Amino acid sequence: MKMQISSFVTSGLxxxxxxxxxxxxxxxxxxxxxxxxxxxxxxxxxxxxxxxxNCTACHSAQYMQTQPPLSHExxxxxxxxxxxxxxxxxxxxxxxxxxxxMSATYGPGKGADEANAKSTASASAKK
Length: 127
Ligand code: HEC
Description:
Blueprint: H1 2-28, H2 35-38, H3 46-55, H4 61-65, H5 72-84, H6 92-106, H7 112-126
Helix pairs in contact: 3-6, 5-6
Bound molecules: heme C.
């Protein structure tokens, strides 16, 4: 009788330990990141790799994406500001390529056809 109880307790403990150790590991596998906003939008433009390398150290990619569709000039100024004001280590030679990529991907270039269609429509509607 004594033996039976202790083996019951032991197997119970083993099951508990497996449960404790096993459960968090299984849950960790279910975590999925929102890919589209967590990273920069992939592109074949050279500025994509440069932006990944130079722009995501201090703030998230999402932070950079939540800007209105701003011009190439604005992005160029922004890259300069990151370097001058905030001390980002961006090689001068890479700065305009990053602005190219950012403005094409998140500037007016993003869905440019749509934006043009809308502004043409509203311009002619105002007349
Ligand atoms: C050395 C750190 C650092 C690096 C590297 C960096 N930034 Fe920033 N960035 C900042 C800081 C600090 C802010 C301001 C945060 C705030 O106002 O809360 C900022 C803000 C921004 C903003 C929001 C608008 C604004 O002007 O405040 C954008 C867009 C941005 N960064 C883009 C970029 C891009 C593009 C790159 C790569 C060329 C880059 N950042 C690299 C530090 C950095």
